[in-house]
UniProtKB/TrEMBL annotation:
Protein name: Protein kinase domain-containing protein
Keywords: ATP-binding, Nucleotide-binding
UniProt key word ATP-binding: yes
Single Gene Ontology BP annotation: cell surface receptor signaling pathway
SUPFAM superfamilies: Protein kinase-like (PK-like)
GO molecular function, a single term: ATP binding
A GO CC term attached to the entry: plasma membrane
Domain Protein kinase, first and last residues per copy: 44-344
Source taxon at top rank: Eukaryota
Listed PANTHER family: NON-FUNCTIONAL PSEUDOKINASE ZED1-LIKE, WALL-ASSOCIATED RECEPTOR KINASE-LIKE 21
Pfam families according to UniProt: PK_Tyr_Ser-Thr
Leader sequence segment: none
Amino acid sequence: MSKKSEERKEKERRERAFIENGSKLLEKLIVTCNDKCIPIRSFSAQELQLATNNYKNPLRKLWYKGYLEGRSFFVKPIPDNKIWADFAINDLVMSAQMSSHKNVLKPVGCCLETQSPILVYESAMNGFLMDRIYVSHDTRQQHQPMEWSSRLKVARQIAHVISYLHTAFSRPVIHMAIHMRNILLDEHDVPKLDHFFYSVSIPEGEIDVEVYDGLWNVYFNPPELEATGKVTEKSDVYYFGELLLELLTGEKSYDITRLATDKYSSLIAYIHTCAQACCINEIVDPAIFSGKGDVSLEQQLQAVLDLALTCTEEDPQRRPTMVDVTKELRRIESYARVQVHPTQPQAEKAIL
């Protein structure tokens, strides 16, 4: 086959992909955006190859830093198949709808010339939350563990954006992927929620919605998803409770290393089993206690643990709403931060 013939076929392939992906994107934007203008820039495949230096030096799997017109962006090429193409368009539309919220990673645009769209987002200078929580001895030189006050602030801000998803639209939207790896941090450590690939709205007149069955074996899922293949807003509450436990313990839900448990146990199962028998200090990430403590710290840790246990109740009806979770985290965050030196006289302590 001649070079010209190959180039012609490649051009035709990109044109077909552009038309197919573009029509899907336009259709979903019309259905979901209610006549709101949502600017989404179109990039060519060549532009993004140049911007990322041909996709060298990934930030992590499927994430690359790119430079366009003097600005840095994050670029996410998606696996080339129809299912992922549909997921990518769903992510682009949902994140565009949510782009006014300060705790969402804002989409800049996309490339529609490939079988699955390539997504382009604003950059998040401080990287991924997981790198500041899952800190081992091997990675401590690159990433300092996040202090407790920052973890609590991240939790409250992510709770707020999930509450917004559940209440701000005509029908509740379930995020379905509230995980540490899907939260990025800007230069001020403000969290940015990403990964709206699986997000789905509950249809009119329904109280739950069926989801893509490929999710069932990906993570430790809410019990109702395993039992029925359907989710509600309370399923996001369960995922958020899992996130709270990871922020508290510094452990991965699916790969527990520090706590004494068998390799087949989830973090949720372990904490529910041992919560009554264990001291809070045995559960909490040791890095949280590495700095100067204060009299409210243990109160906050216990309150967050109690909240996480409630969020991960097996019965969805016993879980709080994300609005109530956000309010509770605000209350916990407002605990007085009074530091008292143990050798201070009692009278001085009373004044403090």
